[in-house]
Amino acid sequence: MKMLERSIDITSNRAEKWLYRLLALAGMVGIVVSLAMGNFILFAIIFALPLSIITIMQILRKPSLLLYIIFIVNYFILAITRYLPNASGISVIMDSLLAGEMIVLFINSSLTDEYSWKATVNSLTVGSLVWMLYCLVEIVNPTGMISAWALSRSLVFNGFFVALITTMVVRNFRQITIILDIYAILTIIAVAKAFMQKFMGFDSAEQKWLDEGGALTHIIGSGIRYFSIFTDAGNFGSNMGCAAIVFMVAVSSCKNTMKKISYVIIAGLAIYAMFMSGTRGAMIVPLGGMVMMIIIAKNYKVIAIGGTALAALYVFFAFTYIGNGNAMIARMRTAFHPEEDASYNVRKQNQEKLAAYLKNKPMGEGLGLSGVENQKTSMRFTTQIPTDSWYVKLWVETGAVGLTIYLAMFLIAIINAAYILMFKVNNKRVKSALSAMLCGVFGMLLSAYGNGFFGQFPTMIIVYTFLASAMNGQKIDESFEPDESADELKTK
After folding, report:
1. pLDDT digit string (tens) for 131-173?
2. At residue 482, what are phi and psi to the nearest 5 degrees?
3. What are the residues whose beta carbons fall under 8 Å from the beta carbon of 46, sequence distance 6 or more?
4. pLDDT per residue as tens digits for the range 226-285
């Protein structure tokens, strides 16, 4: 039987090689003919077609390739809209990529036992499914609007599909390192763009965005809040806080010294970029991530060092004035004294007004009907008050019932993932890499209370990818192939 399977594999590999050769030959002939005819449109089509076919074939063989593409495109998708005036519906690209990945997985699961839908059942995918079904029920909300609901489709579907895809596809340590390396490159690009804004000025598209209203919240008395390639400084700052804690923790997952050094440098750059954003709520991301790291570590030394570092940071920002000459540090320090901040008090007043309005609305006002950013969809009480918080936004749109489901979904998944990493994962490198991801997720969820960034690109897909990967910790640990080096030895 094994001989038969081997012969089939050899035959399929040979057939694939011959197909590639035929595609290459057909492509070269087509290119020569199209250039001879002077038809450059035909040239472009012929040039792209073989590459597209080869890419599709590779994705069919390795669905993880499309997940990496989704992860990358997700990072830039909204930045594109700043440069393309007619790209308001560009998020359909993400819808198409996710749908394409689901189709690929359906094909693979029907042809081979390598991918099983049973393996995707965990607290995150089940919780995401419950959340999606609840959001579908929101269509019949008496105060809702179908058009507003349709614009919120990413909130409804993306989490479930990303959790499902990641749980099925990400099953070994190599895939985790690839995701982290991609994330590292994306972080460097984001930091570089913020530096360009600071030292070279805003480009024409960014200046246009500022002139059309962005300057009200990004050019303020304490200085400029830089936003890089993100939708705004709040989104940028929290994501940089996430990158900082992820690469600080993930250093232990690296065997290569140069890679360790690069992760440390990236973490430092991300922290600096977080301060450049001027987003005070972003401070909680690395701090919350450190708390999660201390919990997962189950190590008295880590607890002592981490606890001391957290205490020192709190004392530095809450009880000293050191560094106040720097506008970035001075602004971040106000996050530790919210009662003295006028904007914080306005937020509390707005929440009290919304609480009175939502008293008899357990399902909320309807998806897409909160915050001043949605006034173009509908002018009503809930779109005239800024939500200033992802959780307040969910509360207004889906009610106390929806917010409870959403928070329960993440709380249960995080506890489950932490348990897996603490008691089911033994390999040090696997535990470090997945702990880094979970720390970033936990910090972002805490930051979502003070910022409305969580449902925007790229945050939500990053969170679901990282959390689903951590949920697969035991599977990844069991598939790990240790080498002869001492650091591969499993912990007792």
Report:
1. 999 999 999 999 999 999 998 989 999 999 999 999 999 999 9
2. -70, 150
3. 27, 30, 31, 34
4. 999 998 999 999 999 999 999 999 999 999 899 999 999 999 999 999 999 988 889 999
Interstrand relation of 219-220 and 223-224 (parallel, antiparallel or unpaired):
antiparallel
User: pTM surpassing 0.85?
Assistant: yes
87 contacts 80 by C-beta, under 8 angstroms: yes
Angle between helices 257-277 and 173-200 (to 10 degrees): 40
* Domain limits, the chain: 23-61, 113-481
Among candidate residues 333, 306, 260, 350, the one with its CA nearest the CA of residue 439 = 306
Beta-ladder partners of 224: 219
Residue 141 falls in which region: left (phi positive, over 0), alpha (psi -120 to 50) or beta = beta
- Amino acid (one-letter) located at 1: M
373-395 mean pLDDT: 92
* Structure tokens belonging to residue 460: 């939500």
Strands (DSSP E) along 83-136, which ranges? none
Please report, in angstroms and rounded to a whole number, the separation of the first and last CA atoms in the chain. Answer: 39
